[in-house]
Amino acid sequence: MKLSQMRYFQAVCVYGSTTRAADSLFVSQPSVSMAIKELEEELHVKLFERQNNRMLLTREGSFFLERVNKVLDDVRSLEQTMQHISNDNTVTLSLPPIVGDFFPNLLDQFLRQHPETHLEVYEDTQAEVQNLLRAGERDFAVAILNGIEEEEFITCPFLKVELMLWTSVYNPLAQKERVNFRDIGTSPIVLFKDSFYQNAIIKSYFQEAGIEPNVILYASQTATMKNFARKNLASTFLFIEECPGEPLLRGVHFENPIVFSVGLIHLRDKAFRSARQEFLDYMLHMLPNL
């Protein structure tokens, strides 16, 4: 079984015809048809049924497609990782929105001092960061350190951030100096999707208070959460660094502050060369001075 055969098969699944699949891959239609025939003979199954000039997956074909998609995704990821490893001038960094303006300013200063370095910055969820570092798809990450495996990762803390309740200025909760989870009760709230680390913390506080939270939306963007809060449709939980200049919102501290440590992390057993080591040295020098 060849990768080219899997790519041809995947394209036929997408386009429903060998002709359109061939056009998308810039190969001849007989090449695609032959690849499908060879796969069916090798696997001893029928992958497609032909109906009204369309090729429809059989049950076996659907099962095979799931595995093919995974294999080709893994191949693409491996290709990207190897290209990255071979390029000593590239530094990849995962950066969350909670670091405000000062961290981009640090990056700007680094690039001015090292103009030959190519910096790629990505926004990843807390749940993704450790796996991306393990896979070599990111060199470094700025992340919440709570829950990071310190045996596997080296951490450099540089910031404390406080999680607050954010609500409309017209919401009664906005009149309080401090709140607890009983104050919030079953009033509507918006949370990040469950892949975000702070969700588990928030839900544990509700559980301790004996309250089932009234979650009306699981969002992936802070903009969506703030929009619900501005319109007084729900309250939400964000760091103050995520809500600069919000006249229609008020951030309320918790009676027992919920504080997270933020830092730079990288794999403990990973040796860096060239631009990556220069980046690490620069950050280790600058971050303690913030």
From TrEMBL:
GO cellular component assignments: cytosol
- GO function terms (MF aspect): DNA binding; DNA-binding transcription factor activity
Q: Name one Pfam family in it.
A: LysR_substrate
Q: Where is the HTH lysR-type domain?
A: 1-58
> What keywords appear on the UniProt entry?
DNA-binding, Transcription, Transcription regulation
InterPro entries, sorted:
HTH-type_LysR_regulators, LysR_HTH_N, LysR_subst-bd, WH-like_DNA-bd_sf, WH_DNA-bd_sf
The family classification in the record reads:
Belongs to the LysR transcriptional regulatory family.
- Classification via PANTHER family: HTH-TYPE TRANSCRIPTIONAL REGULATOR YBHD, NITROGEN ASSIMILATION TRANSCRIPTIONAL ACTIVATOR-RELATED
**Name of the protein described by the UniProt record:** LysR family transcriptional regulator
Native source species:
Candidatus Allofournierella pullicola
